[in-house]
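Two proteins were folded this term; both appear here.
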Amino acid sequence: MTNAPFDLTGRTALVTGAGKGIGRAVALALAVAGADVVLHARTGTDLDDVEKEIRAAGRSVRRWLLDLSEPARIPAAVAEVGPVDILVNNAGTIRRGPTVEQSYDTWREVLDVNLDAVFLLTRALGAGMLDRGHGKVITIASLLSFQGGLNVAAYTASKHAVAGLTKALANEWTARNVQVNAIAPGYISTANTRALRADPQREPSIRDRIPAGRWGRPEDVAGAAVFLASPAADYVAGHVLVVDGGWLAR
């Protein structure tokens, strides 16, 4: 490990879903730590603000626009990204509702983004990391990588799956100096949790169970991403790092 264990100078990171929420916070934190950043989103307007902030921090930044709900497009489109040292699979979607009322199309919509796109991106960009002999892959998992949740069957299945994929790839890639890990955020104030935070019954029941006494902020997750992307985590592999204000400890 270097004398600056959290320094990412000279590294390039791709962050998917970087326009808002956790992705935006992670992209900014990686830039502050020294990384140049490739920002992914479906549309360029989502990235205007975060791009300006990264440039203001003195780092190089560029965009990669792609709709990850069409995973078949990823193998060809990923060539536009170029080599990266750090991949943060953050983009995700959720569809709430009783399972018996959910269509197969809805199931596939969630799995396409949360699992298939993660697999295809990681396989494509991880191949270059393996060839170069170094790299970091970080996937945003969830508390629902461990629990079942309510009315989110597809999301829960996808997040259990990415936790398993993280461990499987770590077994294959760690000996070649590519560390694969995940972060499992707790209840974070983002667009994905807007419906829960607006529910007058569920919101206080969730908050009351969190030992920290509050919902998390996207910035609460960003430090964990910097750690896992840095030389400080060179001996961390196949781990799902929970950032939940103590939720799972209850």
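Next, the second protein.
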Amino acid sequence: MKGFGMNPASLDWAFVDKLRKFTKMKIVLKGIEAPEDAKLAVEHGVDGVLVSNHGGRAMETGRATIEDLPEVVDAVNGRIPVFVDGGIRRGSDALKALALGATAVGIGRPYLWALTSFGQAGVERALEILTAELRLAMRQCGMPTLARINKSAVILHDSRS
């Protein structure tokens, strides 16, 4: 489709409204970085948001997704799930994202590195390592279950100042 690049102007909130009417499937918007957009996503009936900067391709000088996450979580106020990707390289990264309110985290590069280097066995091993690291980080923070993870696992600073 001509003119349908990475950030086409036609993908606006009216498009989301049309999509919502067209399908009964869940709609999760990827690329939400601002609390204002998160609030609009809720208002337009989106089923979830994915805090993502698309690997920095959209604006490489912007904030990291982990920095955007708390504001997006606060903006949706528990009404829809908030997922996050970008920069999740080890289990401690996943713990930080979950502590800041992410419903789940996405991994990309560790998966792809493992796949290209060692195939399916590499992916399985990478997932085992990430899981073991997450469990270890959780125990070190005194949070033995996912349900017990909370903001006390991280120290927050204002990245905008």
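The beta strands are 28-32, 48-51, 82-85, 104-106. The chain has a mean pLDDT of 90. These notes refer to the second protein only.
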